[in-house]
């Protein structure tokens, strides 16, 4: 897998079986609109999920791409906003299930489209408190 992060994120399989593309949302007015419209707080960088595309559906390529993508998003503490758009053989309920398996949360249930968001999973970092002369070291996770 290869990826690039700047104002866009591209994840693609080196065997050319699929790709995922995201664009950073930098318009502050649009960010405030999202916060107000969906009653959410955005405190990390947020990207708009443009698409995930695979050559052959049902072979696990989308799952593998999404696993790679969510790992990158978590490492860089990036949130993702998307509007689900079923086309072809895809059904809305299948898209929702796919995104929910990858920790996306439904923001709206409207006729014809769904909006979802995924917040990054921030891994807890262990820190060691320097010992004083009377106690053993303590480890804090937080």
What does this structure look like?
- The chain has 142 residues and is α+β, with helices and mostly antiparallel strands.
- It has one domain (2-141): Aminopeptidase.
- The protein has three helices and nine strands, in the order βββαβαβαββββ.
- The protein has helices at residues 28-38, 61-75, 92-101, and strands spanning 2-5, 8-12, 18-24, 46-54, 79-84, 105-106, 114-118, 126-129, 138-141.
Supply the key terms:
alpha+beta, 25% helix, seven-stranded mixed β-sheet, Aminopeptidase, two-stranded antiparallel ribbon, 142 residues
Question: Care to give the gist of this entry?
Answer:
25% of the residues lie in helices and 32% in strands.
Find the CATH superfamily: Gcn5-related N-acetyltransferase (GNAT)
Radius of gyration: 19 Å
| CATH architecture field | 3-Layer(aba) Sandwich
End-to-end Cα distance: 31 Å
Q: How many strand segments?
A: 9
From the spread of the alpha carbons, the general shape counts as globular
Order of helices and strands: EEEHEHEHEEEE
Largest sheet: 7 strands, mixed
CATH names the topology as Aminopeptidase
Which stretches are poorly predicted, pLDDT < 50 over at least 5 residues? 125-142
Oligomer: single chain
CATH class: Alpha Beta
């Amino acid at each position: 897998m290869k990826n690039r992060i700047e104002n866009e994120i591209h994840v693609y399989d080196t065997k050319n079986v699929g790709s995922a593309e995201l664009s950073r949302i930098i318009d502050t007015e649009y960010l405030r609109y999202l916060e107000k419209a969906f009653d959410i707080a955005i405190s990390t960088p947020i990207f708009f999920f443009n698409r995930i595309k695979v050559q052959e559906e049902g072979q696990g390529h989308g799952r593998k791409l999404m696993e790679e993508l969510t790992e990158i998003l978590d490492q860089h503490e990036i949130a993702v906003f998307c509007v689900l758009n079923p086309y072809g053989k895809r059904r809305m309920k299948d898209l929702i299930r796919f995104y929910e398996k990858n920790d996306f949360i439904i923001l709206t249930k409207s006729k014809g489209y769904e909006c979802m968001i995924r917040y990054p999973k921030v891994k807890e970092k262990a820190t060691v408190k320097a010992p004083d002369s009377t106690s053993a070291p303590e480890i804090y996770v937080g």
